Amino acid sequence: MSESSSSGYLQSLFGLSGKTAVVIGGTGVLGGAIADTLAQAGAHVVIVGRNAVNGAGRVKMIEELQGTAEFFKADSTSREDLEALVAHLKANGRTTDILVNGAGINAATPFLEISDEEWEQIFRVNLLSVKVACQVFGQSMLDNDVAGSIINIASMSAITPLSRVFTYSASKAAVLNLTQNLAREWAERSIRVNALSPGFFPAEQNRKVLTPERVASIMNHTPANRFGDPEELAGAVLLLAAGKAGSFVTGTNVAVDGGFSCMTI
């Protein structure tokens, strides 16, 4: 197979030309890397978040790499904001083909000290935002008969809870359950719903819990013996987003964790 034919084959499998991808939480480190990947595969990417400065910066980076993107300011938990984005896309002749639910927050509070307010806030951002976005954009996909892909960002702590992040672990476990339920519900309509669980990737939401002692513990339980780089999520993201290569993948959780999930003692 020649280089050009090989390139064409890979493009047919993983290419996203003509697709529109909405990345909620795209102003963050991991969400931004996911947005970059989707844009480089040919999708028009809508960066969704509250930080306009970070959003504009990500759009500029994508455009410098010859991709297309725009920023849309919205609260990930606001149905009104997300419905406004659907209307904005419709007004510009677009429908959502790919949805990434990447908004998330964390806290390292001892269990007996977790306030109801903290619990509710973390569940609101980590779980309610996924539920609302899946309702709003899922309805749009159904209405427009789109063979779409929804990627919910979960966590390794959703499978085996990590110490000191009780609420985060519980909220991400719920994200996995919701992902499987929606995959079953919408499979016959060609809407795939999957989860992506990064291992340890330093980002804004977890830096405050990465004490030297915790880092040492993480390395002892990660066969790769290092943190992940955001770009290392690219392969998994493309598989889950691609209409051809990932067309039979739904209801699954893809772990990108340097071997963390296979470590016992």
From TrEMBL:
Q: Which Pfam families match?
A: adh_short_C2
In short, the EC number is 1.-.-.-
Q: Which UniProt keywords apply?
A: Oxidoreductase
GO molecular function, a single term: oxidoreductase activity, acting on the CH-OH group of donors, NAD or NADP as acceptor
Q: At the top level of its lineage, which domain of life is listed?
A: Bacteria
Q: What class of enzyme is it?
A: oxidoreductase
Q: Is the keyword Oxidoreductase assigned to this protein?
A: yes
UniProt domain Ketoreductase: residue ranges: 19-199
Record family assignment: Belongs to the short-chain dehydrogenases/reductases (SDR) family.
Supply the name of the protein. Putative oxidoreductase UxuB
Q: Which organism is it from?
A: Gimesia algae
